[in-house]
Amino acid sequence: MSSAIPPHPDPHGPQVRAATLVRRPGLWLVPTVLSALVALVLSLLYMGGILNPSDNLHRLPIALVDEDQGPPSGQRENLGRRITDTIAAAGSSETAVDWRRMDRAALRDALASGKVYGALVVPEGFTASVAALTTNRATARPRLDVLTNPGVGSLGSSMASQISQTAAHRASLDIGEQLSASAAAPTARLLLADPVEVVTSVGHPIGRHSGLGLTAFYYTLLLVLGGFIGGNTISSGVDTALGYADSELGPWHTRHATVPVSRTQTLLLKMLMTAGISVLTTTLVMVATIGILGMDASHLPTLWLFSYCATVAVGLGVQAINAAFGGIGQLVSMFVFIALALPSSGATVPLEATPGFYRFLGIFEPMHQLSEGVRAILYFDARADAGLARGWIMIAVGVVAALLFGFAMTHYYDRRGLRRLTPQPE
């Protein structure tokens, strides 16, 4: 039997066997190269962003609040000022942490808008409580407060808490060294070696059904996947219905008569269908996550509108990429909306704890922009400055970019006469 495949094989004649085809190098080349590249690049992208978050820390924002009053009579130094000055000076000499000095009112606002991952607070009367340790007036250990912000994500909040606790314990040991030097009895020196209690509490609480701050990421992932899968499904379905692609369901194969339509009009049809079908998919996502599973969510009309626009923006981007790149469009859009977007989202690992490449991707990759908007709605009272305003802006930019790019490419193809028309018999 000849290894060549006839251009129009007789379905009732001799069939080519797989054993014959598998020996053809040309069949192996493209799938092998693409599969290998995808596996290599995905491995580097996903694992490269999460392996060393502590080593990659770059200006993680943590609030530093000094509420300590002036020293009591007879004492010269304000310990609250000394502690915060020391911590801020150490932070300014490196780039791992961005210690942001603020008062209590600014702290509440920063926690409620997700601008800081946590806080270290020197409470009122700290200096006086330390001074009382060396007298008979001491009633309790001096205290430093560490506040967490779970709405920014469990990992980011945990990292900020660990950093704040480490700084607080270092300050306690420094104060203890000074107090121990003036203590006469060995027992007193032992008790004063680490005199400050570090108390950790939640600075901005979120709901119990919020996945420890991860529901914003997974909900955003549902929106992106809905737009991505929906866009590709619509694209394939339209091409099949218009006769530009075969339809196979199990052993059944059909191909419809080709409808003479330009690339531009085909793209317009797919985009209109994307906008229409996204109404249903967005509603079902909210019904499943909030209505059935009980996810904590407020501002439901805002959440639905943002979710719908986000899904449409991704879907239009998929349609534009498929129209421009043809058969490899799904692979290209997978990298744009999934492969590059997930590790640069900043929703699980803070962007401040990822290598610079991912922080650069986070400037424009859709997953980061959308997760910031969803997080603002779910955890931060739908505040514009918590990321919602930027989310809306980037959705608008994405829609405009998809429309301009998609229709520019199809219009160019149509003008050059690069038609998709392959007539099929009725």
Count of discrete structural domains: 2
Uncertain ranges: 1-6
* Average pLDDT level: 88
**Proportion of strand residues:** 5-15%
Based on helices, strands and strand pairing, what is the structural class? alpha/beta
Give the end-to-end Cα distance, rounded to a whole number of Å. 34 Å
Record field, number of beta strands: 7
User: Given the C-alpha coordinates, what overall shape results?
Assistant: elongated
Major beta-sheet overview: 5 strands, mixed
What is the count of DSSP helices, taking H or I runs of 4+ residues?
14
User: What is Rg?
Assistant: 30 Å
Strand line-up across the major sheet = 2-1-3-4-5
Give, in order, the helices and strands: HHEHEHEHEHHEHEEHHHHHH
Q: Approximately how much helix is present in the residues?
A: 40-55%
Top keywords for this entry?
single chain, two-stranded antiparallel sheet, DUF3533 domain-containing protein, abc type-2 transporter like fold, transmembrane, disordered N terminus, 426 residues, DUF3533, membrane, T7SS_ABC-Transporter, elongated, alpha/beta
